[in-house]
Known about the structure:
Blueprint: E1 7-8, E2 14-15, H1 18-26, E3 42-46, E4 49-57, E5 60-65, E6 68-72, E7 88-90, H2 101-107, E8 113-116, H3 118-121, H4 126-130, E9 132-134, E10 140-143, E11 146-151, E12 171-176, E13 179-183, H5 191-194, E14 201-205, H6 214-224, E15 228-232, H7 239-246, E16 253-254
Parallel strand pairs: 6-7, 7-8, 8-9, 13-14, 14-15, 15-16
Antiparallel strand pairs: 1-2, 3-4, 4-5, 5-6, 10-11, 11-12, 12-13
Helix pairs in contact: 6-7
Amino acid sequence: MRQNQILVTRSGRFVLPVSLIFGLLVGVSTPLARSADKIDGDHIATSDGDLIIHLINHATFVMGWKDKTIYVDPVGAKRFDGLPKPDLILVTDIHGDHQSNETLEAVTGDKTGIVAPAAVAEKLPEKLRKQTVVLANGETKSVAGINVEAVPMYNLTADRLKYHNKGRGNGYVVTLGGKRVYISGDTEDIPEMRALKNIDVAFVCMNLPYTMTEEQAASAVREFKPKIVYPYHYRGSDTGKFQKLVGPDSGVEVRLRDWYK
């Protein structure tokens, strides 16, 4: 009998295989189930199914695509209750609103791949460190079947250099179903951001004194022209002002969402 094949006896009774019964009882996903089916949020069409954006808080969010679940800077374990275990976790920097070892220990599965810069990996517990792929700015690797490129994130302004020095943290560009998704991490409007090409979805930070102003963020977005931009990590900033500065003439769709419910 093939796996999950339903048989009908001569008496007309249905016979279910044990594996399927077990799956129905305990909620184990069958091969046809997808992680993205359990994630709510904005749907963005790709060449191979929808990418789903599930907001969590501040710099933390989840992406679901096909059978893949990606956590970005997971902070606050209870916020992930009911969500699929991640196939991939991206951590951008060492600050507490990006790296929470307590949360990472709670949400990481045995098969979860973690991508992080060296500064983050050095602060991880040994078990998590063994599951971590360290990427430096400019490096690219496929992790959990997902192409991940680490890009720079850092401060430019003299009085902000103490927060994020060049080379310590990572922004990321991930490719899902042909869509390139940029995650800025904590950064100002650096040349590397302005030089990005073919970005379909961008998550761009703005807040003082740690990252940048609405003007800086809007200016960079108008230059690298993502198709869709989500302002995030914006506590204390005016996202409406950012949207006006990006402007309808830019060709960029600004998606304002409440990250601080």
